[in-house]
Known about the structure:
By secondary structure, the protein is an alpha+beta fold. The chain is built from four helices and five strands, in the order ββααβββαα. The longest helix has 19 residues. This is Trafficking protein particle complex subunit. InterPro entries: Longin-like_dom_sf (IPR011012), Sedlin (IPR006722).
Amino acid sequence: MSFYLAVVSPLDTPLFEAQFTSGKGAPASASTSSFPSWSSFSNGSDAATPSTPGAPAGSTPGLEKHLLQMIAHASLDAVEEVSEGTASLYLKAVDRHNEWTVSAFIAGNVKFILLHDTKNDDGIRLFFGEVWELYVKASLSPFQTVNTPIRNPAFDTKVRASAKRYL
């Protein structure tokens, strides 16, 4: 089970992104590649490519990151269309790309986009609530400027702990 979180500013620029996997319910022998089984990139063994911490085994780290960014940012239009028709902050299953499902949480003008390959609506909703709270605390810091990327390692650690708890 793989997840990709992108926090997007009102100007549609990325403020924070994280890619993580969940150990909940995943069999030990399951493939950790986030590419579909028919993809030529799945389970590719390129020994010359160094492994990046947190990146799924058997994948090209830079390529996968760019693919996830593209899917998340391409879904922004769908997120905005769905958000106009509802007063809810949490938007589940807004868009779909291959095996990835896009869920969103919109607080003010900031969009929290989560790509996931499993259905866990309650856990994702709780995760978004906690990440939103962490974002508000980080943005209130005097060391953080509005609409600039969040590079606080404590924020990253807390987001990953929340992901481990809820996803």
